[in-house]
Each structure stands twice: as structure tokens, then as C-alpha cells.
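Async update (no meeting this week)

Hi team, since we skipped the sync, here's where things stand on the single-chain job. The sequence we agreed to prioritize is pasted below, unchanged from the tracker. I ran it this morning and attached the output directly underneath so nobody has to dig for it. Comments welcome in thread, and please keep replies under the output.
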Amino acid sequence: MNTRRLGDRQVSALGFGCWAIGGPFSDTAGKPLGWGEVDDDESIAAVHTALDLGVTFFDTADVYGAGRSERVLGRALGKHRDEVVVASKWGNVFDEDTKVLTGTDNSVEYMRTAIRATLTRLGTDHLDLYQLHTSPSVADAEALADAAEELVKDGLIRGFAWSTDDLERAAAWAGRPGYVAVQHECSVLHDAPELLDLCARHDLASVNRTPLAMGLLGRRDSSRPATAADIRSAAPEWLRFFSDGVPTAEWAATVDSVRDILTSDGRTLAQGALAWLWARSERTIPIPGFRDVTQAADNAGALAHGPLRPDQMTEIDRLLHG
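Output:
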């Protein structure tokens, strides 16, 4: 249970999402897109904690912290680079100096520029998984898939994926050489049966973003409002679990309804939420975020507990859906 297949590699069943360790960045209107201030030394210590506890998959994106996340992850991995699988994403355009997301670019030319910049920031000569981070039409994305296959042949990447919750987009590249995963939202609060079925039918890994519902299934509650530099303080529409920096009353009540089951058998709430995902499908690889050693140890500690039992899954389904 402690490993999953990602393309031709075996990785830990738990990955670590590196959005938060990028620190603050914003859109052109000044709205926060990061998770608040971070300390790079603490981030590096957290990555080392994950490594010590058996985590071998790390997911980042060039836009996280406008390049900072990739740089910090590269520093943290150092001599351990060849022991792990590293994923990043492309498609967003940003200014590293001002830390501002300025737009998107879905051209093949930008993709080829972006991969070189990512490899430089990570301090590596190849990327294990390269993921499209934007939403061009299926037709327009065909050229990107062709280019990704060329990157595989050139040895710059080992496989590629699309980070999308849209079923048509996720299915568009199925069957292509090198297309090995779909990254999509999935958690006990947001199941994704169609995408999980797609991954099963096409032998794809299911990389699960937002497995802890942006912290709602972790340590974040109304007593700890998000700071001004945190995306949850001015949550966009898609970040539906939070309002004004705290969990909405409705979503908090939903979590409370399943809390006892998720925290049974000695698990923390976060560990229970990750255990639900492992029980949901043998292809799931949740990638919870982290900012410090305590979070890293809590998340990685879920591996020791394994998936929820079938009876626990059945009871959660009854409580959430009647």
C-alpha cells in the first residue's frame, strides 16, 4: 500500500505538494495566490522530514511563489534528487522579481522555454513529470501533447500529465506515449468518480490536489484565520471551503459529521482524510501541502496507518450522502 505506480516509476503513496513553500505571490490586481509568508530553512527541513519518513514524490509548479518553490525544492533535495520523483507544471507566465502572475501562454514555444527554466531552478537535468497547468481547448492542446512527447524523447522529461478537473481534457491525451497521470481535485469532501474511472480505464495515476480541502481537513479552523498574504483570506470562487479567511460554517459542519471516523484508530484528521483517498482507489496519490516540519511529519505519518477499512468508507458515505 505504501507505493503507487506513476508511469514506469514506483513512488510513495503520498506525495508532497509544494505550492505553500513558494511563499507569497499575487495576480495583477494584487490578490494573493500563495499561502502566506514562509521560511525557506523551515521548508527545507520539512522536505528532509518527508524524505526521512518515506516520501519520494514531490509536486511543484513554476508559478508557485513565481519560481521560489522550485528553487527551494531543488535546494532541499540536493544529493537526494535521484532518489525521488519530481513533478512540476507549465503554462502560467509570471515575473520572478515582482512575484506577480501576469497571464498564461499555451504555445509550444513557451513550453520549451518553460521546461528549461524549471530545470535550472530545480538544479536538475530532467523532470520526472511535466503537467499542463492551464486550460486550453482540447484541439489547441494537441500540439502541446506532441511537444511533450518530443521532450520525453529528448530526455528532458520522463512523462507528462494534465492538471485539470475537466473530464474531456483529462481524457484527450489518453493512449499517448508518455501520458501517465491526471492531476485533479479529490478529497472526502469532493469525490471525483468520473476522473477516477478514467484513470482506471486508461492505466493512469490519479494525483490528488486539495486532498485536505485547503487545510479544512487539517489544522485550519475558525480560530486560525488566514493572513492577508494567504489565498484563503480572499478566496476565489473555486476555493469554496473558505470565506474571509476561515472555513464556512457549512463546510465546517460537514467535516464535524465525519470527524470521529477519520480520527479513529489513532489517526489525526489529516491522516484520516488521506486514508480515505487511499481506500477510494489504488491509483490515488494525494499531495497535501505543507509549510513546516510539524505538518510534514503529520502528513507523512499517514503512511504508517494505511487506508480506511471498507466499513469506515461505507459509514462516511452514509453520513455524507444519506
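Quick observations from my side:
The radius of gyration is 18 Å.
Residues 138-153 form the longest helix (16 residues).
Reply here if anything looks off.
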